[in-house]
Every structure is written in C-alpha cells, then in structure tokens.
Design brief:
This protein has a 6-stranded parallel β-sheet, with helices on both faces. It has a single domain, classed as Undecaprenyl pyrophosphate synthetase, CATH 3.40.1180.10. By secondary structure, the chain is α/β, with parallel strands linked by helices. α2 packs parallel to α3, α3 packs parallel to α4 and α5 packs across α6. It is globular, with a radius of gyration of 19 Å. The relative contact order is 0.19. It is built from 8 helices and 6 strands, in the order βααβαβαβααββαα. The structure holds farnesyl diphosphate (FPP). Farnesyl diphosphate (FPP) binds next to α1, α2, β2 and α3.
Length: about 260
C-alpha cells in the first residue's frame, strides 16, 4: 500500500467522521529492539501525538483511541502501574497543547478504578477542553465494549423501573445515547495495528457498520502517512449499509 499525501482528499464530506484505533504492538515493538515493554508504550505516546495532530488537521470529527482495556488489568502489576504513571504524565504534559489546538478530550470507560489523582487529572482535562470545537478525542481507558452496553442497559432499566420509559419504547437510538459514546456518531473506520485481526471487546455496538482496517505496522511506527493510507483505503470501499451500490451512487455528489 503506498503512502499518499493528505492532498488526495478533495471532498471532506466523504472522510470518515469517526475513526477508532486499537493501538496494538507496543510490547512486540520494544521486544524486537531488545528493550522492556514500557519502552514501547513510551514510543506509543509519540505515535498518539502524531495521529491526533494529523486527524485534527484533516478535519476528522472524532478519534477514539483504545488506551487500556478492562482486560489489561491482567498484565503484570509493574506494567499496569507504569502505564498508569504514563497516562498521568502524558495528560499533564499534553493537555495545554491539545487545548491550544481546540481538541475536546473525553475519557470513556470505568475510571472509578483509577487513582484519585488520575481521576482528578481526567476531570480537569475534560473540563478545560469541554467547549472546544475541533477534533473530539475519546480516550478509552478501562473500557470494554460489553461493559459499555451493560452500563447503558442499567441506566435504561432504571428508567423502566421508575416508569419513565416502557420496554416497548426502547429503541436502538436510545441505547446508543446511553453508551459512553452518546456524544458522537458511530464508528466509520476502525483501525487495528500489529497484524491482529480482532475487535477485542472494543466498541462492539458502535462498529456495527464500520469498515475494519488491519495493518501489520506496530503502533509505535504508526504516523500521519499510516493514517492517510487507512483513509485512502476507506475511501475506496463501497459503503452500502444494506443498500445496493446504485442507491449509494445516486447519493454521491456529481463529479466535476
Ligand atoms: C497495546 O500494545 C498497547 C497498550 C495496552 C497501551 C497503549 C498505550 C499507549 C499507546 C500510551 C499512552 C496512550 C495515551 C492515549 C496517553 P501491547 O502492549 O498489547 O503490545 P503487544 O501486543 O506487542 O504486547
């Protein structure tokens, strides 16, 4: 797949509105260099910075990054502790720059298990950037797709219990609105690095119609060219939502 300049995009309405990324391969990237896994996570932060900045410049509306899954607690105590420290450091260091670039940060996931200091940092970073109108950056931390659906159903079940809603009034849109991603549209393009071809309990509901892009690159090697390659691939897909190709063709703006 060749690398393309962002200039190939001539109609921004065709761009994916919501891109989600499973950032995988930090550990293997480090180990292939004879280094500790943490070296890979630190290099992964640089890839996050490059990707956020490229997505913002391209005018992508929403970027959701899978930073820490509900299952990642199973890693060694040392790796979990160092990852948490890295999140605190990165948040503290990068939030001003994100704010300056009008990025709106939202952490999605069950953050109640994080340290108080990390929870405070998250809350103040979200508050600082809440009114920004640029890229919406969702960082999924202690996130699981099944957990997200469960917490949405618990909120709706409690509305039913209180008689605010009847079971018959439940709709897909009401479930979507209660997910942690209720503030953004569903995913258009899901990217996973490192050659693994799994969704790994990432946004299960929200990827219903997403195009799934898998690349062999390890996450620390991911950069602007990797993102534009993925977008170029996406633009060449025929997205049909169960319609025929002719129906979709009829919706496209006439080529000049
Ligand atoms: C997966 O690689 C990566 C993670 C579990 C952590 C991702 C974290 C970062 C990129 C750093 C900080 C991010 C933010 C948003 C501040 P892996 O360890 O599973 O790699 P492996 O499959 O090669 O072992």
């Amino acid at each position: 797949m060749s690398s393309q300049s962002p200039n190939f995009i001539t109609d921004s309405s065709l761009l994916p509105k919501h891109i989600a990324i499973i950032m995988d391969g930090n550990g293997r990237w480090a180990q292939s260099r004879g280094k500790a896994r943490m070296f890979g996570h630190k290099a992964g932060v640089d890839a996050v910075k490059k990707t956020v900045s490229a997505a913002n410049r391209l005018g992508i509306q929403v970027l959701t990054l899978f930073a820490f899954s509900s299952e990642n607690w199973r890693r060694s105590e040392e790796e979990v502790r160092l990852l948490m420290e890295l999140f605190v450091t990165v948040l503290g260091r990068e939030i001003k720059q994100l704010h300056k670039n009008s990025v709106r940060l939202k952490v999605i996931g069950d953050t109640s298990r994080f340290s108080n200091s990390l929870q405070d940092k998250i809350a103040s970073a979200e508050a600082l950037t809440a009114n920004n109108i640029g890229l919406i950056l969702n960082v999924a931390a202690n996130y699981g797709g099944q957990w997200d659906i469960l917490q949405a159903m618990q909120k709706l079940a409690s509305q039913v219990e209180r008689g605010v809603l009847s079971a018959e009034q439940l709709t897909e849109a009401k479930i979507s609105a209660q997910l942690t991603t209720g503030h953004v549209p569903d995913v258009d393009l899901m990217i996973r690095t490192s050659g693994e071809c799994r969704i790994s309990n990432f946004m299960l509901w929200q990827v219903a119609y997403a195009e799934l892009y898998f690349t062999e690159q390890f996450w620390p090697d991911f950069n602007e060219a990797s993102l534009t390659d993925a977008i170029a691939w996406y633009l060449n897909r025929e997205r049909r939502f169960g319609c025929t190709g002719e129906q979709i063709q009829a919706l496209l703006p006439v080529k000049k």
